[in-house]
Amino acid sequence: MSHDDRSRRHPMRSIVVCVLGVAALGAGAALYAQATSDYNPKITIIEIMDSMVMPNAQIVWDAVSYDVTDKGEKITGPKTDEDWQKVRWAAVTLAESANNLMVPGRTVNKPGAKPGEGELAPADIQKMIASNRGAWVAHAKVLYEAVQEAIKAVDAKDIDKVSDAGGTIDSACEGCHLQFWYPDQNKKK
């Protein structure tokens, strides 16, 4: 029996398969439309950097200090459970800021904003992000993973590991900035 004979004998099967296929495609399209409209990216990347990334990274970085004197090195870190909790809250907020940076459609800055010293113009940064979104997302994910190490260190109340994680967070930020904010800086070296 040929394929044509089978489809003539079971026309309902073909119709059911077609209807299910169309329904699946429609559901997929609806999910995609919902996913892209689930975000409201009106806050700019710079606003996220200024209000979420920098203040919370600074709390993590400042959680551990080293003081070297003629008597030796003194390492200071959070002392109370409340101190540790404040650092953890900052780290969690910093991790979630990385997710916010990955939201599609987010602009770098408000129209007409001037670049910081040594930075590309916001419109140029926006073009670079659009043309290399994969790298942008990868940098945000590196930041997210670096902050996860800080959270683990805070949970373990391990001052040395908090300090190490702070260095990794700094490197994650700098790697992104060197690619998107001030790429010409690499050319000067």
Quick rundown:
The protein has helices spanning 3-9, 11-37, 45-62, 81-101, 122-131, 133-155, 159-181, 184-188; strands spanning 65-69, 72-76. With 189 residues, the protein is mostly helical. It folds into two domains: 3-37; 45-188, Four Helix Bundle (Hemerythrin (Met), subunit A), CATH 1.20.120.
> Helicity range of the residues?
over 70%
Distance between the termini: 74 Å
* CATH fold naming of the largest domain: Four Helix Bundle (Hemerythrin (Met), subunit A)
CATH architecture of the largest domain: Up-down Bundle
The figure for the number of domains is: 2
Number of helices: 8
The secondary-structure element order is HHHEEHHHHH
| Mean pLDDT metric | 85
Sheet with most strands: 2 strands, antiparallel
Low-confidence stretches: 17-22
The top level CATH class name of the largest domain: Mainly Alpha
Strand residues, percent: 5-15%
Strands in their spatial order, largest beta sheet: 1-2
CA radius of gyration is 25 Å
Structural class: mainly alpha
Shape annotation:
globular
**How many runs of DSSP E, i.e. beta strands?**
2
